[in-house]
Amino acid sequence: SAGASPSPTSAAAGGGTGRRSFDHWFGEKDRNGFIHRSWMRAQGFSDEVFDGRPVIGICNTWSELTPCNAHLRRLAESVKRGVWQAGGFPLEFPVMSLGETMLRPTAMLFRNLLSMDVEESLRGNPIDGAVLLTGCDKTTPGSIMGAASVDLPTLVVTGGPMLNGKFRGCDIGSGTAVWRFTQDVNAGRMTQEDYAAAESGMSRSNGHCMTMGTASTMACMAEALGLQLTGSAAIPAVDSRRYAIAQQAGQRIVQMVEEDLKPSDILTRDAFANAVRANAAIGGSTNAVIHLLAIAGRVGVDLTLDDMDEWARGVPWLVDLQPSGKYLMEDFYYAGGLPAVMREILPLLKADAITVTGKSIGDNVANTERTVDTEVIRAVGNPLGSGAGTAVLKGNLAPDGAVIKQSAASERLLQHRGKALVFSSIEEYDLAVDDPDLDVDADTVLVLQNSGPRGYPGMPEVGNMTIPRKLAEQGVEDMVRISDARMSGTAYGTVVLHVAPEAAVGGPLALVQTGDWIELDVPARTLHLDVPDEELAKRRAAWQSAPPPTQPADRGWARLYVNHVTQANQGCDLDFLIGRTGSAVARQSH
Ligand code: FES
Ligand code: MG
């Protein structure tokens, strides 16, 4: 049949085309080829799809349980148009979807599971190149991690942010306004009726959170790393230009297969330096730190917390978006989006880093428009702050590091000495938070243990503990909080996160007791527990004889996760997933 004829580019006489979908699936002349083609024909494809053209896997994290990704089926149709247009053969397939707002106990517990799904689906199927359709927080890094371990040509298309939230004539930001409204209700400044009414105004279109939370941040990271077409990150989910750029992405991935332009060509150390600097300029999420470390681990790029701290220093904070600032993603797009930011900080970037366009980041950015609104995207000469990105702290309380998002913190608390009030679980804290007799004042340092990758398990976003009610009623809006947890990219406050090693594996965080003095000095990058070493040694001995309770994880994914997850400073990947094995599969499908 014509279906089995080799493509014009085939070196068929002496072997294959070099195209895996053809050589190992659709171009085979034997029983296996019959099977591979025949069952595909059941979908009504014509003969040409088997002629050796690039097969593009459209890896879709669509799910109605991930509302942020609910429109990705439609976006996939636009990608397919582009793939057909460029002479490719698109095949869409589902992978695990992770929704921040529904999934218990935390979507982060499953990021690595998604990455495994993506990795095995890409490797095991007749796919020459991949488009990753992502949106909600974990879907972007999880998909990239999996694709990086296979290393076929890969292009990311994020789903885009929701339209700005609106409530009583004001713009309200996803997540950020929830934290604020909740605090206002606790302080008696907002009625329960208004609180309920704000729900529908906040989420009024398809798309991911429209603050500079983790989803928007990771969309920007995908673009800054060079994995997403220039100008893609900020386009609202419902803007027709989102669909147009998805079609372009479909065209471009076919060319990328012809050029054999792979993640390992793009995800260099320079690309990570660009991403970290872009994250400082946009005031992006602390979660990007963990995700970038994990992605770097997959491609074998040496990346440490110290690199990230050093790269972020001196980068001007330019983008005035919530939760650190004022505006939202719609405003960011209209102001020029990420290309305008990259253009501003170009002298700080590795401009030669190659991207999915086949050109360097410098070339991509040179051809874009300048900032349209300098209130939303500041000029380098008029920044919102300098070196206000995520700082890495070290000290006897966090020997392997901790992070703090400076732009989201209170200036006056960046150097602070206070007495610890310790909670061994978030549930314990939640029971105490409303207690009028809680022994706490505005200078107290709230400490939360056992909320790290192994301890929870899954490292939930609980690090921005609600201000205790009695203080909220007095008007206290921020306090120093320290934990081995993460916090939502939409959250804010003087919140020290990702303390490593975590309490559950015996990190010094486990040894803190109520009443201990803690010193935070962000300019000096230190986090110090003011307790003598001798005393800490005594506490450690006692801790070892009575380790903290953890969630049962005696079977299934949780067991695999708890036994193999790495600490926050290493990216919380599973230890055996670090690295890549490429796309080859020695055996036939049987
Ligand atoms: Fe999905 Fe925020 S909940 S992006
Ligand atoms: Mg989240």
Automatic annotation (TrEMBL):
<dbReference type="InterPro" id="IPR020558">
    <property type="entry name" value="DiOHA_6PGluconate_deHydtase_CS"/>
</dbReference>
<protein>
    <submittedName>
        <fullName>IlvD/Edd family dehydratase</fullName>
    </submittedName>
</protein>
<keyword id="KW-0479">Metal-binding</keyword>
<feature type="domain" description="Dihydroxy-acid/6-phosphogluconate dehydratase C-terminal">
    <location>
        <begin position="375"/>
        <end position="572"/>
    </location>
</feature>
<keyword id="KW-0100">Branched-chain amino acid biosynthesis</keyword>
<dbReference type="Pfam" id="PF24877">
    <property type="entry name" value="ILV_EDD_C"/>
</dbReference>
<feature type="domain" description="Dihydroxy-acid/6-phosphogluconate dehydratase N-terminal">
    <location>
        <begin position="53"/>
        <end position="364"/>
    </location>
</feature>
<keyword id="KW-0456">Lyase</keyword>
<dbReference type="InterPro" id="IPR042096">
    <property type="entry name" value="Dihydro-acid_dehy_C"/>
</dbReference>
<dbReference type="Pfam" id="PF00920">
    <property type="entry name" value="ILVD_EDD_N"/>
</dbReference>
<dbReference type="InterPro" id="IPR052352">
    <property type="entry name" value="Sugar_Degrad_Dehydratases"/>
</dbReference>
<keyword id="KW-0411">Iron-sulfur</keyword>
<keyword id="KW-0028">Amino-acid biosynthesis</keyword>
<comment type="similarity">
    <text>Belongs to the IlvD/Edd family.</text>
</comment>
<keyword id="KW-0408">Iron</keyword>
<dbReference type="InterPro" id="IPR056740">
    <property type="entry name" value="ILV_EDD_C"/>
</dbReference>
<dbReference type="InterPro" id="IPR000581">
    <property type="entry name" value="ILV_EDD_N"/>
</dbReference>
<keyword id="KW-0001">2Fe-2S</keyword>
<dbReference type="InterPro" id="IPR037237">
    <property type="entry name" value="IlvD/EDD_N"/>
</dbReference>
